[in-house]
Amino acid sequence: MFQTPANLWRLARVGATFARTGALARVLRAFDPPPYFHAVLRVVTFPIAPFGLKGDPEMPALPRAIAALGPAYIKFGQLMSTRPDVVGRDIARELRVLQDRLAPFPVEQARATIESELGRPVDEMFSVFEPPVAAASIAQVHPAVERLTGRKVAVKVLRPGVERQFRKDISAFYFIARTLELLLPSTRRLRPTAVVDHFNGVVSAEMDLRLEASSSSEFRDNTADDPMFVVPAITWDLSARRVMTMEWVEGAPMGDPEALEKLGVNLPRLAEKIIQTFLKHALSDGFFHADMHQGNLKVRPDGAILALDFGIMGRIDPLTRRTYAEILYGFLSRDYRRIAEVHFEAGYVPADRDVELFAQNLRAIGEPIFGQDVSRISMARLLAHLFEVTERFGMRTRTELILLQRTMIVVEGVARSLDPQVNIWTAAKPVVETWMRDNLGPKAIARDVRDAVLVLARYAPRLPGIAEKFVIAADRSEELDAAVRIKDAGPRVWTMVGAGAAGGGAVVGALWLANVLG
Q: Could you list the residue ranges forming a coiled coil in this record (predicted)?
């Protein structure tokens, strides 16, 4: 469908709203575009500014404009608050005031959605179904009681029409991104279209509550051995694409230290626990809650952390986990040369750069931070400085690392709100050291050898067939070429066959070694 006219209208509405609320002037100050672009925007938006949305005058200009434009824009603003590499630190900080404090939609619409998705009357499934206790940009949550079991549950329901509205808005976002790249070449290094791609993927996943339920279930399995970190169980037969039902959990809000103290919770210990928990999830499982702000965390009287809202989860591969752990460990031990080598080994920094100069830059990051007062030692600040340096040395933005950094900033902020004197590095050190010992020592080497041999053994039965096909193909070629190919390939073929034959024995040996070292 030809959508340019509609996108032009949406772009005009965005421009008018930004002009009316003062957000346009704020953005221009932050990005300092060429004078001609500045002048064109002002000329274009001045006459249409009165037609823009007014927004909440109590909010700062930029969040005010974004909130006025609707749920998709609010979600985009929340995502951009996690991307200081794209919008800058000041704007990222301003966007953090965007909270999911939207007006709830009527209970009747929620009931209609539930009945449509689950195919049964609400009263048949729930003996109690209460008004919403939280309304967000995409969904809202209702307390309820299961009729069959009598258990109290939380029922999350998508906003009516949010998928359709999102599709319209994402089309406008792509149009805006491509327009920026065309008219303002300096923005291309920030990859606006790639940012919208990322946003599209994140929010599309959030609007399928089956995926959030799946993330919650996986996260619950991963943390099952930790009684002090609780993930509510999903009720699968009462969940679908637009409805998710999970057990109700009771606890004091993480953002209310006074209430926590009244419960007898040890706040300094809780502050350390939240940091260590995040690092364990990121390093050990490679799967972590990427939205661990106070609104998504509660605390039981015994100090156990109750996690909620699994719409945004982070996932990092084993190599990235190893790199991240070695970087943290390098800073903990102040081994700047090793940190530099890790960046080069992982391919984060181009091989043609000077490793010694990079190590010197890393020292300039680490030493001032470790020389500060405990209350000012910040892992998040260190990572932010680190990404600045790596960018200067040619490292391209890596989404998974930015999400990791953003979550670390949020977690560190939560810990500081509980105990301003928490020592971030003291809390992190045992987790990082344990991970290093388990994943880079003899036990880890034996495990890696075992995994490699298992892969080889899995393909061993196919090696004779591969060799036969190779010889047949060679016979069909010209005689001279065939002779050359057989001569060159013969040793390799027999080497492959020999390796396959040895695979079974090697598997046994590797398993034995892992068992001895484990």
A: none
Average pLDDT, the chain: 80
The C-alpha atoms of residue 430 and residue 416 are separated, in whole angstroms, by 19
pLDDT in tens, 5-60: 777 777 788 888 888 888 877 877 776 667 766 677 777 776 777 778 888 888 88
Residue 348: inside a domain: yes
Query: Containing domain of residue 92, as a range?
Result: 4-99
Count CB atoms within 10 A of the CB of residue 258.
7
- Count up the domains in the chain and report the number: 4
Three-state SS at 134 = strand
- Specify the pairing of strand 229-230 against strand 305-307: parallel
Same domain, 258 and 207: no
Active site residues: 291
pTM for the model = 0.71
Nearest alpha carbon to residue 415 among 264, 274, 295, 290: 274
With left for phi above 0 and alpha for psi between -120 and 50, is residue 85 left, alpha or beta?
alpha
> Tokens for 208?
């399928």
Residues 51 and 152 in one domain: no
The C-alpha atoms of residue 61 and residue 71 are separated, in whole angstroms, by 17
CA distances for 4 relative to 43, 178, 184, 397, angstroms: 21, 12, 19, 30
23 with 55: CB under 8 angstroms? no
Contact of 55 with 67, CB cutoff 8 Å: yes
Looking at the structure, tell me whether residues 448 and 433 fall in a common domain: no
Q: Examine the domain organization and report whether 463 and 484 are in the same domain.
A: yes
Among residues 392, 416, 440, the one where a domain terminates is 440
Taking CA atoms, 509 is separated from 291, 374, 448, 495, 501, in Å, by: 44, 49, 13, 20, 14
Q: Which of 222, 249, 276 is the last residue of a domain?
A: 249
For residue 144, the cross-strand partners are 129, 153
Please count the residues of the chain.
Answer: 518
What confidence score (pLDDT) does residue 13 get?
80
Distance CA 337, CA 356 (A): 7
* Structural domain includes residue 173: no
Task: Tell me the residue ranges of DSSP E strands in 308-399.
Answer: 313-315
Instruction: Tell whether 151 is covered by a domain.
Output: yes
Task: Tell me the CA distances in angstroms from 218 to 214, 231, 279, 310, one per residue in order.
Answer: 6, 10, 17, 10
Amino acid at 241: R
pLDDT tens, position by position, 69-102: 877 788 778 767 756 656 776 787 778 777 555 6
Rounded Cα–Cα distance for residues 264 and 243 (Å): 36
For residue 79, the model assigns a pLDDT of: 67
430 and 298 fall within a common domain: yes
Does residue 513 carry a pLDDT above 80? no
